[in-house]
Amino acid sequence: MPRRFPDRLVSAGRPRSSRRLRAALLLLPALLLLALAAPVAAWSALGHKLVGALAQRHLTPAAQREVDRLLAGEPDPTLAGVATWADTLRDRDPARFKATSRWHYVKFDDGGCQYAQARQCPDGQCVVGAIQAQQAILADRGQPDEARRDALKFLVHFVGDAHQPLHASALEDKGGNDYQVSLATRMEPEAYARNRYTDGVMGTNLHSVWDYYVLGEAGLSLEDYAAKLDARPWPPRREPLSAPDWAAESCRLVDSERLYPTRRGKPVHAFAGADYSLKHRALAERRIREAGYRLAELLNQTLAQTP
């Protein structure tokens, strides 16, 4: 469970020391305050695990058998259990993480969300190219099991990445990483809980807000959350079953859903509403559902002929 901060840090969604806040904002014009009083959780972990859990609910028997075989021996031999493996390479295998770091996102041309391999991914080093390459490895029964196992783990993660809008942006700010935000919240993941707040405000960026603060529901286990999402009226779009289209969808959502609190990502001296997280949670959950169902279809097709 996230750790609850003392109420003295935040009052009605704003820090009490507003004078210090105003001074800080004047000194740091790129900072924008998002006051989020709702519980938080990490798309970077929870979101990827939800994608895996949803996909596993919709595997065919043939795909499920091969997933079970390939993941045998994993600490948690489920799609949810391996969903963050590609990120954990940062600490477990830094050289491999560096070699695969560009596989987590795709950069579109400013002003357009039309995917063209020659422009967006000429060397295959983007999330679209990675999905296509890893699917080919998984489908090839002549590949060693270790290679196919890693391909499966990469696919679970990268299909989730392709559905996170800020992993496919056309803006020149590294997917919101360069768009600075001052965040006030009553709740925070334990990993972010130390030495990050000053007067109840944490400096972060928009990408991290989407990673850690948009998705989540208090009191629900992973399986309960996945079941709740799976039980909602359907369908969001399952088609197209195409990584370029998934990334283009994400790119278009950045503008159409106004992910940036200011126009076209231009920072201003302003307070955003306290409901940013709640406002965008429905979109985040929709993208998680689309990613989960599409991952299931991709695996069902890829593993259909695997004995």
Automatic annotation (TrEMBL):
A Gene Ontology MF term for this entry? Answer: hydrolase activity, acting on ester bonds
- Record keywords, A-Z: Disulfide bond, Endonuclease, Glycoprotein, Hydrolase, Metal-binding, Nuclease
Protein's UniProt keywords contain Coiled coil: no
The cross-references to Pfam families, in alphabetical order and at most eight, read: S1-P1_nuclease
Q: Which InterPro entries match?
A: PLipase_C/P1_nuclease_dom_sf (IPR008947), S1/P1nuclease (IPR003154)
Which biological processes are named by the entry's GO terms? DNA catabolic process
Q: Which domain of life is it from?
A: Bacteria
Write down the SUPFAM superfamilies for this protein, in alphabetical order.
Phospholipase C/P1 nuclease
Protein name (database record): S1/P1 nuclease
Which species?
Answer: Agrilutibacter solisilvae
